[in-house]
Amino acid sequence: MASGPAEELERIGCCKACIQRFTGERQASSSKDRKLDGAAEEPVCVACEGVFQVNWDAEVKRISDAVQSSGYEYSSFVLSVSVPFSFAVRQHAVLLHMKDTFPACRGWGDIMQVKDAVKDQLLNPLVQELKVPCDVKSPFHINLTIEHEESSQEHLFLAEADPSAFRTRKGRTENFGVASVATCLQSCPDHRFKRLGHCPPKLLSTRCPPAAVSCFRESIYLAGRYTKYSRELSQTPWLIDGERKCDDSVQELLTKHIEAFIGNKDIKFSSSGREDCDVRMLGRGRPFIAELVDPRLQPSSLTPAVLRRLQEETNSQTSQVGLRDLQLISREETQNLQEGAEDKTKTYSCLVWLSRDVSDDELHTALDSKKLVLKQKTPIRVMHRRSLAVRERTVFDLRVRKIQPQFVRLWLSTQAGTYVKEFVHGDFGRTRPSLGELLQCEADILTLDVEAINTDWPPCVD
Predict the structure, then answer these.
(1) Which residues of 146-249 form beta strands (DSSP E)?
(2) Helix H or strand E segment including 1
(3) In whole angstroms, how far apart are CA 9 and each of 16, 196, 208?
(4) Count of beta carbons in the 10 Å neighbourhood of residue 460
């Protein structure tokens, strides 16, 4: 039998760094003491799978070069390390073996995990190399992903060792995850783990390849208002069975120049309601938020002057939409877009055809300054995407002007969520009362404009 824990760890195939991890000898922490130079002739460590058997100076340089060539701006960073499930399984197997071999020794459970030891090794050198601090609240993430093909299946026996660790509350089996693997290792009886697994871990013939380096920045949020002057433009890209129904969209026209400047990987566009493709959005415009996912730029680069320039460039490139009040907001401020959605009012104007010539007196008696409470069953045209329900919506103000026989201009102020087209034509009786019902004739809407969305957010900056 080996004379002590360190010798036994070396005998079963642990590297110097892992011997230090398991025995608690942390004083030898320089890169010279923690790496094995010329490691090609050394056996692959059974605990870290060769992760610590590298030239750490070269590894720091490789990671730093990858970050600096990524194209991201950064003034701080947070480092995360992802390791295979086999690392936890192998560490557990080493600990069980050492507990059996040295039952009198205590403290085997408090061992630094490989991912934490890697971060411990890299953090300060990366701070010096990148010349920026590490900050756990930094929006800029450096991710190291370690994978090893040879050991990629070693954790699968855990599902047999403790099936309960991989069941959800509803009894379904879930995939392996960090939490479920940790739960299984903690709850699985030692004798079952030893019977189904390898204790101590089996030797490896290959080392882990260098960690893959990737970078990610947390989203930037922009708010503003848009106007829409085209009656042939959807709000977001409109595809049916993979085929576009409109050449452009409000979202694309608004964000094309912004995305090119910021260099984000994706965008999530949301607004305070939406108008149909054939409806114009006038007045001060519709409030919107654009979440720019994984942007290359820092928020500090988006000064008011820069945003104003991006807004002017956007407006100069299209006559179909207009952009105003573009501003940087926090993630928390995005909640303002939907707050009080039911209480907002919207103002519309529309051109309406009537099946008979209605006199001015009839129009004003039936409609002017009326407050109406509508009962609107989900319109036929949106039943494919909205649940079937009867919704009460209020028309707060209604004014009408006759243009010529059988044609009138209607202005109305409504509660948000009112289906104005259906209020005009009745939608086969699904909206009551309707304009046609009030005037005792058929009515149909020819054009519709949103003239105002009455909300103070986002604040005016123009």
Answers:
(1) 212-217, 220-228, 239-240, 243-244
(2) none
(3) 9, 22, 20
(4) 10
pLDDT tens digit string along 35-92? Answer: 433 344 679 999 999 999 989 999 999 999 999 999 999 999 999 999 999 999 999 9
Look at residues 346, 352, 310, 355 and name the one whose alpha carbon lies nearest to residue 328.
Answer: 310
| CA–CA separation, 462 and 455 (whole Å) | 16
Measured CA to CA, the distance from residue 233 to residue 419 in angstroms comes to: 19
Confirm whether 110 is a catalytic residue: no
Q: Rounded to 5 degrees, what are φ and ψ at 373?
A: -110, 115
- Amino acid identity at 112: M
Residues 298 and 264 sit within 8 Å (Cβ to Cβ)? no
Which 3 state secondary structure label does DSSP give 189? coil
DSSP at 348? E
Contact 250, 238 (CB under 8 A): no
- CA-closest candidate to residue 51, choices 66, 39, 61: 39
Cβ atoms within 10 Å of 458's Cβ, excluding its own: 22
Full-model pTM = 0.84
Q: Which tokens hold the place of 370? A: 């009326």
d(CA 93, CA 426): 72
- Both tokens assigned to 416: 């948000």
The one catalytic residue in 57, 190, 247, 276 is 276
Rounded to 5 degrees, φ, ψ at 414 are -130, 165
pLDDT tens string 329-372: 999 999 999 886 667 899 999 999 999 999 999 998 888 767 89
The residue type of 248 is: D
User: Can you tell me the distance from the alpha carbon of 113 to that of 417, in angstroms, rounded to the nearest whole number?
Assistant: 53
Residue type, 233: L
Q: Distance between CA atoms of 413 and 144, rounded to whole angstroms?
A: 55
Residue with tokens 């039952």: 103
Residue of 196, 209, 185, 221 whose CA lies nearest to 458: 221
Task: Calculate the CA 57 to chain-centre distance.
Answer: 35
Name the helix (H) or strand (E) containing 207. Answer: none
Question: Which value, to the nearest 10 degrees, does the dihedral of the CA atoms of residues 127, 131, 136, 139 take?
Answer: -140
Q: Give me the count of residues in the chain.
A: 462
